[in-house]
Amino acid sequence: MACSATSTTGLISSIAATTKSMASPICKSSQNLTLPKSFFGHRKPLQSRAPRSISMARGSHSGKSFIVKASGEAPLVGNTAPDFEAEAVFDQEFIKVKLSEYIGKKYVILFFYPLDFTFVCPTEITAFSDRYGEFEKLNTEILGVSVDSVFSHLAWVQTDRKSGGLGDLNYPLISDVTKSISKSYGVLIPDQGIALRGLFIIDKEGVIQHSTINNLAIGRSVDETLRTLQALQYVQENPDEVCPAGWKPGEKSMKPDPKLSKEYFAAI
């Protein structure tokens, strides 16, 4: 039985509206949770906390940088990090974290993990917390993200490590219950509703300079994250140099030049 012209027109309009809605990029998460103080008992109410400020001298430099800046949506590396504002748990409190508040102030290690109360996840989360002081010296904040609620984060933080919990952490755990943050960083597994183990290093200008994405069963290395951060900061302070494989602070770098690079190769 044929559809009438009126029905067909209505169907086309409906499809067009749905398509337009689905095409809108999600680059920002805003989760506003307001509960009465009595709900938390002795807990402090939701409040905003500014990023911890650390002063670090940065050398001025001139010349052409070997680091490129992308101008499109893909890949993420070289582009401005998608901003977000979301609730998090830090120091036994509910706080709000906004990524753009770190721009001009700090580097950021942003890492995603699948779920609270799982197995590989606590080994990574606590490892980054235990090494937090090393990142702090490099003027860097660490932010952990999963699709769990702030209530789940809080319960996990209040669970002892020997029982599979986290204990107190030195950085915030962000709640991405809408999954919009995970989606904007390209780590969401749609059919499972959880994130892959994505890790992003964002510089002080808000540009993503490094990313790694592991499958669910593979934990990440704090040592390699720290080394990559140190290499990034080095080449940003020395834009006429690049860091070879496995470079660590104090080791010889190289010049990105056909002739000058021979000095490095001749020395190894």
From TrEMBL:
InterPro entries, sorted: AhpC/TSA (IPR000866), Peroxiredoxin (IPR050217), Peroxiredoxin_C (IPR019479), Thioredoxin-like_sf (IPR036249), Thioredoxin_domain (IPR013766)
Q: Which UniProt keywords apply?
A: Antioxidant, Disulfide bond, Oxidoreductase
Q: Which residues form the Thioredoxin domain?
A: 75-234
Q: Metal-binding among the record's keywords?
A: no
User: What does UniProt give as GO cellular component?
Assistant: stromule
EC assignment: the record states 1.11.1.24
Catalytic activity reads:
a hydroperoxide + [thioredoxin]-dithiol = an alcohol + [thioredoxin]-disulfide + H2O
GO BP terms in the entry: cell redox homeostasis; cellular response to stress; hydrogen peroxide catabolic process; response to oxidative stress
Write down the top EC class of this protein: oxidoreductase
Q: Which GO terms describe its molecular function?
A: thioredoxin peroxidase activity
The yes or no answer to whether the keyword Disulfide bond is present is: yes
Please, which domain of life does this record's source organism belong to?
Eukaryota
| Database matches in Pfam families | 1-cysPrx_C (PF10417), AhpC-TSA (PF00578)
Protein purpose: Thiol-specific peroxidase that catalyzes the reduction of hydrogen peroxide and organic hydroperoxides to water and alcohols, respectively. Plays a role in cell protection against oxidative stress by detoxifying peroxides. May be an antioxidant enzyme particularly in the developing shoot and photosynthesizing leaf.
Instruction: Please describe the quaternary structure of this protein.
Output: Homodimer; disulfide-linked, upon oxidation. Interacts with the plastidial thioredoxin CDSP32. Interacts with the plastidial NADPH-dependent thioredoxin reductase ANTR-C.
The family assignment reads: Belongs to the peroxiredoxin family. AhpC/Prx1 subfamily.
Its name, as the record gives it, is thioredoxin-dependent peroxiredoxin
User: What is the protein's species of origin?
Assistant: Jatropha curcas (Barbados nut)
List the taxonomic lineage: Eukaryota, Viridiplantae, Streptophyta, Embryophyta, Tracheophyta
